[in-house]
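Render this sequence as a predicted structure.
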Amino acid sequence: MIFYLLYYGVESFKFNQNDFDELLKQARERNESLAVTGKLIYCEGTFIQVLEGTEKNVLDIYASIKVDKRLIATKVVTTGTVEKRYFKNWSMDFDEVTLSTINELENCTHPNVTAYITNAPAIKLLKLLTNSK
């Protein structure tokens, strides 16, 4: 069984391209060394991420994310186990989406990303991770 953790976090400063490049390089190297896969989405100052792997490795990575100074807050949405990885070919897939894209995918209007994330059930966030491109 594969353990997964879905969380969101809020950036502590406005990321630029170099910040994204550095974050993704670090995440991909660490995740690859620990056999963790997943996907990260950035939407208007908020990160939504799912990590997959052994429970210990995923929890260790999340522990480091919680103290990362690039984020001012994080919150676990859900954890669980699945029979196989969804992002098996990605040490860390990444997409940037806008609130208007989320609204289009859901066929409704959310006033801001925070309202969307705090009210969305885990399954909607997982669908966003798998449907964004």
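Summary. The chain has one domain: 2-131. The beta strands are 2-11, 37-43, 46-53, 71-82, 93-96.
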